[in-house]
Design a protein that fits this description.
Layout: E1 27-28, H1 31-36, E2 42-50, E3 53-55, H2 58-63, E4 67-70, E5 79-80, E6 85-88, E7 93-96, E8 109-119, E9 131-140, E10 161-163, H3 169-187, H4 190-193, H5 204-215, H6 220-223, E11 232-238, H7 245-252, E12 256-264, E13 289-298, E14 301-307
Parallel strand pairs: 1-2, 4-9, 5-9
Antiparallel strand pairs: 2-3, 2-8, 3-4, 6-7, 8-9, 10-11, 11-12, 12-13, 13-14
Keywords: Signal
Length: about 325
């Protein structure tokens, strides 16, 4: 059992410098305890690292509860153990060098960390004096994948994405847009899908990225239509609590709205749909394919544009929780 900070002897709370902070001298804590500790304490903990943030567990990722970390504090290089973790200054994330020594894409992963507690004090801080950890050493915790949550894993109130109500005035609009978009993406024909993704406003880099995605043998939109019957489809909107006052007013006024539409060949797709936007990433192996559609009605003229979101690293598909 970890002793409460208030009960620790003063010597145990003495500030440690980088040279004296090691795995042997570090105090084992939870991420929450480290975030609340005084600056300069040498700590040892396990946490999920992803996109420059540390999370206590997968639930914290979906709740958006995290603290920042620095892997290159004071010019120190991070010491990697047997799992060969390296800090990548470009992405400001940890990458696994792998057997070839070539860094792979940053992805969420459990790390065993030795770090110094600190307080953020720069223009890049999310909040003044926010807690931050200066990483001294990092090892990946093997055989502990970071898997995405399914609907059954959390209460519906915690879903960041939820199906659009059937009586919503936006349901028919997004449905019609999806009916036009899906066959265009499945066709792989740029003359069909480019106009729906912005036409001349579609950046060259985004066009090339989408071409690679739908041109691959693993085209997720083609895979979603392999079923003998019509693919399963869902229209997902953001939870109202995630919208600011201005965004909510525009949606309520029927002027603008955004939704994520997903398709799947799985008969039990209802339990597999993403519950957060970062899971609608078209990562290989997902049991669905997704597109984001932004819709607006200006001067009585309806307009919409589709976006195909992707991420190089994302939460892994859950294993041993039913066939996928």
């Amino acid at each position: 059992m970890i002793a409460p900070l208030a009960l620790l002897a003063p010597a145990a709370l003495a500030a440690a410098g980088p040279a004296s902070c090691s795995e042997d001298s570090a105090r084992t804590m939870t991420l929450a305890e480290a975030a609340a500790a005084q600056a300069g304490l040498c700590v040892r903990l396990e946490a999920i690292a992803w996109n420059g943030r540390l999370y206590a567990d997968v639930d914290a990722i979906y709740a958006g509860v995290s603290i920042a970390y620095r892997g290159d504090a004071a010019g120190r290089s991070v010491r990697g153990g047997p799992a060969r973790m390296a800090f990548d200054p470009a992405s400001r994330d940890f990458v696994d060098a792998g057997s070839s020594g070539a860094p792979l894409a940053p992805m969420p992963q459990w790390l065993r960390l030795t770090a110094l507690t600190a307080r953020c004090a720069s223009v890049q801080c999310a909040a003044d004096a926010a807690p931050v950890l200066d990483i001294v050493a990092a090892d990946r915790v093997r055989d502990r994948p970071v898997e995405r949550l399914l609907r059954a894993d959390v209460a519906p109130a915690a879903w960041k994405l939820r199906p659009l109500a059937a009586d919503s005035p936006w349901a028919a609009r997004f449905g019609a847009a999806a009916d036009a978009l899906f066959p265009a993406l499945r066709s792989r024909d740029p003359q069909q899908w480019v106009p729906l993704l912005g036409g001349r406003w579609l950046a060259a880099a985004d066009r090339a990225r989408v071409e690679r995605l739908i041109g691959a043998r693993s085209n997720p939109f083609f895979a979603a239509s392999r079923a003998r019957e019509k693919p399963q489809r869902v229209i997902l909107g953001w939870d109202a609590a995630t919208l600011d006052v201005g965004e909510r007013a525009l949606v309520d006024a029927g002027q603008v709205a955004e939704a994520i539409i997903c398709w799947s060949q799985h008969a039990d797709a209802e339990r597999l749909w993403p519950i957060a936007a970062f899971d609608a990433d078209n990562r290989p192996g997902r049991p669905y394919a997704c597109a984001r559609i932004a819709y607006s009605i200006r001067g009585g003229e309806p307009q919409w544009r589709a976006f195909i979101d992707q991420a190089e690293g994302g939460l892994a598909e859950p294993q041993n929780r039913g066939a996928i």
